[in-house]
Design a protein that fits this description.
Blueprint lengths: L1 H4 L3 H21 L4 H18 L10 H22 L21 H19 L3 H12 L4 H8 L3 H24 L1
Helix pairs in contact: 2-3, 2-4, 3-4, 5-8, 6-8, 7-8
Length: about 180
């Protein structure tokens, strides 16, 4: 990031090639339509180019910083879409899916119970399996990045993910039947 802050285009190109597809997937997973996610990804990366000097490694990883920026851009986009009356310029029906109706209290309760069940199940995983899932699914790391971070071979990380997901399925199923 320091090199990008100094205007190093090669460093930015490397960052872009590594993270742009992940940012796009991150945006789509949070509700952006594929066309909108392309545009938002470009805006995020432009902001990174302009504000690279603001990155503080003491506050988190580059990936976390990028995902925070992308989430903020998405929220801003969604807010502006809600404020713009229908039929005004920029009103693209295909940009974002129709918002789903507000969840009922029963749905909210079930969702909260599902989250508690998942949290309880994660605690029961071996630490190395839990660490891989947290890296890959919560921090958006690739399995290769998880392997480097944990200093283990990529095959070991893949095995840990498979075993962790199998174990989670079993634990979650057991909690549903209780």
């Amino acid at each position: 990031m320091a090199a990008i802050a100094r205007g190093d285009r090669a460093a930015f190109t490397r960052l872009f090639l590594r993270y742009a597809p992940k940012i796009k997937a991150h945006l789509e997973a949070r509700g952006a339509a594929p066309g909108a996610s392309d545009e938002l990804t470009q805006e995020v990366m432009l902001a990174v180019w302009r504000k690279a000097a603001l990155y503080d490694p003491a506050r988190g990883s580059v990936a976390a910083w990028l995902y925070t920026i992308s989430r903020n851009f998405l929220f801003s986009q969604l807010r502006s879409e809600r404020r713009r009356p229908a039929g005004e310029p920029g009103d693209d029906v295909d940009t974002f899916p129709e918002p789903s109706p507000a969840p009922t209290s029963e749905q909210t309760l079930l969702s909260a119970e599902e989250h508690r069940s998942l949290a309880a199940s994660l605690v029961e995983l071996p630490p190395e399996q839990r660490a891989v899932l947290q890296g890959a699914y919560w921090r958006g790391q690739s399995l290769q990045e998880c392997a480097v971070e944990q200093q283990v071979p990529l095959g070991t990380v893949k095995t840990r993910v498979r075993l962790a997901l199998e174990r989670l399925r079993g634990l979650m199923a057991g909690r549903r039947t209780k």
